[in-house]
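dumping this here so i dont lose it
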């Protein structure tokens, strides 16, 4: 818009200046001709070089040409400011609230200034545009003052919880400046006043009733409706702390009562709830200590009960598992230590005796036999407390007796075969030979000239009275 107006005005101004310059230049030539004619008639001896040179200043209708250029540039600058700064501010005004005709007056002044500029009346154009700008600034200032007053009153009545009065003044402010951010935000808060006022009244009742939880609930509702009421935050924090202290103390007291009643799970639940309210405190440490102490006592009682049952049932392996686990927590409990040691000794003795019984053939060895006797002696003390171990002792004792009892071993031959027993010597020729041998494994060899030798691996078991072996060489070579 500015460029189009200036282009049009420049074109018209150029035409006017050109016309004026032609007229002035023509008048100047006439003056020079007149002066030259006079000089020629009166002083013919004076040449052109002797004439004094005078500066000729070309003047326009309103003053010197140089001055016009300054006003012209000044107008262009003023017009740019008016259109880029002043007019955008005027657009947002509610002209219905402004004196009738002022808007048209401003438009007329600008139009006149542009017309004067196009006619090269730069001084008048500048003055007219300045007048338009002055009127516009006065209008804007008056609107700002009215807006500030309305906004201030709206804030005051808002602080007094006066919904109708605060709404009246905020509407007046928004009528002046519909897009003002602060006014729009205050308008939103004013619309919450009826509900907020009701909630504040309920807060008064809760305060009288000393209902802290209700106060907290109402403050949170108010902040949800009007988050800008930051003045309530300190009160909310104070009330929450007070309420949390009461809740925390109640959890601690209930937890202690549950422990006294032996309700461990409930006590743990109260401890957990209290810790969520306050993670660190002496009261929390106290309750935790009581719970741990009670848990330890309960676990010890349980371990003693289970270990006794295992002991009575001769469940030695189970007793070891129970006492090993319990001793991790109750390191110095004498009963658990004693039962653990007993169970391990029992398992050891049973394992040793079971090994001798399972491989009793080795008892034919004097060394193994003596070891078995020592094992029985070591188990005698424990056998009184274990029926299983006692049975093992009795069984091994029977085996020891059996291995010390000789068995009648009959060797049947043909009286032609020479018989010998490895480790014992020759038996000789016999058709029917009875020997008394201890239970063991023997190698019997039969020989006869011209016949293949015979070897019999004779196993004499314990616990029998007699056994027979045939040793005859009847296969010729």
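and the seq i came up w/
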């Amino acid at each position: 818009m500015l460029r189009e107006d200036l282009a049009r005005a420049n074109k018209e101004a150029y035409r006017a200046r050109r016309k004026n310059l032609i007229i002035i230049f023509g008048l100047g030539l006439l003056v020079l001709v007149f002066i030259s004619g006079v000089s020629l008639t009166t002083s013919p001896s004076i040449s052109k070089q002797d004439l004094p040179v005078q500066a000729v200043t070309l003047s326009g209708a309103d003053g010197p040409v140089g001055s016009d250029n300054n006003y012209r540039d000044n107008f262009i600058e003023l017009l740019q400011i008016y259109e880029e700064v002043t007019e955008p501010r005027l657009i947002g005004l509610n002209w219905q609230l402004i004196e009738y005709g002022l808007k048209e007056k401003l438009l007329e002044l600008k139009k006149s200034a542009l017309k004067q500029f196009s006619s090269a009346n730069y001084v008048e154009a500048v003055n007219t545009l300045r007048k338009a700008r002055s009127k516009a600034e006065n209008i804007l200032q008056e609107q700002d003052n009215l807006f500030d007053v309305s906004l201030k009153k709206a804030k005051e009545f808002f602080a007094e919880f006066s919904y109708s009065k605060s709404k009246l003044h905020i509407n007046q402010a928004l009528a002046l400046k519909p897009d003002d951010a602060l006014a729009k935000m205050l308008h939103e808060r004013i619309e919450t006043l009826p509900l907020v006022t009701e909630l504040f009244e309920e807060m008064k009742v809760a305060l009288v009733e000393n209902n802290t939880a209700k106060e907290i609930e109402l403050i949170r509702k108010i902040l949800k409706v009007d988050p800008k009421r930051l003045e309530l935050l300190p009160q909310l924090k104070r009330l929450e702390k007070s309420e949390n202290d009461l809740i925390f103390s109640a959890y601690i007291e209930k937890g202690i009562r549950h422990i006294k009643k032996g309700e461990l799970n409930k006590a743990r639940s109260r401890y957990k709830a209290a810790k969520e309210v306050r993670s660190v405190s002496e009261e929390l440490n106290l309750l935790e200590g009581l719970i741990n102490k009670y848990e330890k006592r309960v676990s010890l009682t349980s371990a003693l009960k289970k270990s006794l049952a295992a002991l009575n049932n001769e469940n030695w392996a189970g007793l070891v598992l129970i006492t090993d686990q319990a001793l991790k927590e109750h390191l110095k409990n004498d009963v658990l230590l004693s039962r653990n040691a007993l169970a391990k000794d029992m398992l050891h003795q049973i394992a040793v005796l079971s090994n001798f019984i399972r491989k009793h053939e080795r008892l034919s060895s004097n060394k193994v036999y003596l070891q078995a006797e020592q094992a029985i002696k070591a188990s005698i003390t424990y056998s009184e407390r274990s029926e299983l171990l006692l049975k093992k002792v009795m069984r091994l004792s029977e085996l020891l007796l059996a291995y010390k009892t000789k068995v009648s071993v009959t060797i049947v031959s043909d009286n032609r075969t020479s018989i010998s027993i490895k480790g014992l010597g020759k038996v000789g020729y016999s058709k029917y030979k009875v020997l008394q041998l201890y239970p063991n494994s023997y190698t019997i060899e039969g020989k006869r000239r011209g016949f293949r030798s015979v070897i019999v691996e004779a196993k004499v078991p314990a616990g029998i009275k007699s056994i027979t072996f045939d040793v005859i060489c009847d296969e010729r070579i």
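Confidence is low (pLDDT under 50) at residues 9-14, 16-66.
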